[in-house]
Amino acid sequence: MNAKSQNQLFLVCPFCHMEKFIIKHFGDGLFLTAPASVFFFDDDIYLKAVKKTIQREKITDIYLVGDVSCRFIHYALHNESNTGLRCESEIKELFSKTDTAFSLTEKLLKKQLYEMSCQSIFGKEIEAGQIRLHALLTSRHDDFIAPINCEFLQRMQLPATITGNLDQIGRRSVLSYAESI
């Protein structure tokens, strides 16, 4: 965490080696890692430590990043052996026979966004306009980044734009997302 923070926290898989790719596209930021970018905030001590870091570093934007070349996504797609990590059961719950790396990664990102937006995790901060949550579907090998839009998250963040709690750039991006629905 030596990078100079620009109020951005990126949640990434450590096995996908996304840090240089993210810095290339977004500039410096902080990184938090979990296998397959599947974060379990059910541990109160862990969640408090993450929230304390968010406050101390004045994080305003949290980016959940899912790369289509993630080994855990490919394990599920090819029915390969498990490593026993908790993220694999999360991925298998979402998996269907028609999935591609893109569709499975997108489903996983949306599920994580939904869980992270719960009141007990980051919901209060989102509704108050203190932080914005984003999801990015990436292919580091193809130099590709696509934002994942979630209607429930847009509705949560919209009241903060109306009350003026988000900065001008955030207000424009949230409103443009809402207009595209």
Would you mind describing this structure in some detail?
- With 181 residues, the chain is an alpha/beta fold.
- The chain is 48% helix and 15% strand.
- It is built from 8 helices and 5 strands, in the order βαβαβααααββαα.
- A hairpin with a 4-residue loop joins strand 4 (132-139) and strand 5.
- Helix 7 (151-163) packs across helix 8.
- The chain is globular.
- The N and C termini lie far apart (36 Å).
- The relative contact order is 0.14.
Give me some keywords for this one:
single chain, 181 residues, alpha/beta, 5-stranded mixed beta sheet, 8 helices, 48% helix, globular, disordered N terminus, disordered C terminus
In short:
The chain has 181 residues and is an alpha/beta fold.
Query: How many DSSP E strands?
Result: 5
User: Numbering strands along the chain, what is their spatial order in the largest sheet?
Assistant: 2-1-3-4-5
Along the chain, the helix and strand elements come as EHEHEHHHHEEHH
pLDDT under 50 segments (min length 5)? 1-5, 165-181
Question: Termini separation (Å)?
Answer: 36 Å
Rounded mean pLDDT is 82
Describe the sheet with the most strands. Answer: 5 strands, mixed
Rg (C-alpha, Å) = 16 Å
Shape: globular
* Number of H/I helices: 8
Q: By helix and strand content, what is the structural category?
A: alpha/beta
Give the fraction of residues assigned to helices: 40-55%
Content of β-strand? 15-25%
